[in-house]
Design brief:
The structure is a homodimer of 185-residue chains. Chain A has helices spanning 82-94, 153-168, and strands at 11-14, 23-26, 32-33, 38-49, 52-60, 69-70, 73-75, 98-109, 114-123, 134-140, 174-177. Chain A is elongated, with a radius of gyration of 20 Å. In chain A, β5 and β6 form a beta hairpin. With 185 residues, the first copy, chain A, is an alpha+beta fold. Chain A folds into two domains: 1-35, Ubiquitin Ligase Nedd4, Chain: W, CATH 2.20.70; 38-177, Nucleoside Triphosphate Pyrophosphohydrolase, CATH 3.90.79. The A-B interface holds A 1-8, 11, 18, 21, 24, 33-39, 75-84, 102-103, 106, 108, 110-111, 113, 115, 117, 119, 132, 172-173, 175, 177 and B 1-8, 11, 18, 21, 24, 33-39, 75-84, 102-103, 106, 108, 110-111, 113, 115, 117, 119, 132, 172-173, 175, 177.
Chain lengths: 185, 185
């Protein structure tokens, strides 16, 4: 950040009076431009098929992790609820109609200043297909999950929690911190 | 937003190619300046006193809702976990030492593009006092909660959930959407 988005003057990275950490402050109008973590909202879309609940996964058409499998999720927009954002991403990435069941996993990723929130969701029909950001969309039984081809640790952990909880049919809400973990590629 | 923070050129509010909603886009370098909801992290600090768990509340020294009571909470900073942000706010607003127990309430407030996350927390000692943003800090038994002088609906709802859950000693995690609700003052 080099210029003030309000007045166009130069920005300096300094600790403002009464604050305790450096901020981007305008040299001219003194506006402080805060930067804050972003929320990624997503669904764990489930569909009862042949007596087993299957999970909808999307194969990523975009970087990072292009070609790997993910749950539908994306940046929450201003003016929408976290639950609505999760459903919107499910529509956009999988052309899928779902209903929220309940909040399920919350992950804090401080190294990239993101917080993920996944909801358990019921897929309402089998009328789904790859959206613009997906190469493929499929339902997976537990035995079919491509564990070695999942895109992000938050996806792996959400699926692990789900299959554990399913054994006892008790679904908690999980908050987890995930610290830096970067894999090649 | 009028000027590009990267190059200082003029900004236009338009729908970029491949997007579906208006963004702030630089006329010159084409950088898209996204705006996203912010996270407010806070604690429900509890202390076992005379066989009852009491709740730590802070009387706000700043607007909005100056003079009303709140739980310690504030904007999450880049680079910190949601739980660490909640503990930092508890230190800053109440000079209090606490430990996280578990995630407790999550509120989505789309009209102001905010998501609150409160954690149940254990107050480690009685060495607390008003921080810069507080006029007073006190422990309250259930019968002492100033219900008519609470600062925000998220505070009221978090306390209501807590006292209900405490009766049965089972603490869930609550996700709630809160739509526009503005009180005079």
């Amino acid at each position: 950040m080099k210029f003030c988005s309000d007045c166009g003057s130069n920005i300096t990275h300094i600790i403002p009076d009464g604050d305790n950490r450096p901020r981007f402050v305008c040299d001219s109008c003194n506006k402080i431009h805060y930067q804050n973590p972003r929320i990624i909202a997503g669904c764990l879309p489930l569909y009862l098929d042949s007596s087993e609940e299957k999970v909808l996964l999307c194969k990523r058409a975009i970087d990072p992790r292009k070609g790997l499998w993910t749950l539908p999720a994306g940046f929450l927009e201003n003016g929408e609820t976290v639950a609505d954002g999760a459903l919107r991403e499910t529509r956009e990435e999988a052309n899928a109609n779902a209903e929220i069941d309940s909040l399920y996993t919350v992950f804090s990723l401080p190294h990239i200043s993101q917080a993920y929130m996944f909801f358990r969701a019921r897929l309402l029909d089998l009328d789904f297909s790859a959206g613009h950001e997906s190469l493929d969309v499929q339902l997976f039984a537990e035995s079919e999950i491509p564990w070695d081809e999942l895109a992000f640790p938050v996806i792996t952990q959400t699926l692990e929690h789900y299959f554990e909880d399913r054994k006892v049919q008790q679904f908690g809400v999980y908050y987890r911190d995930i610290f830096f973990e970067r894999r090649p590629g």
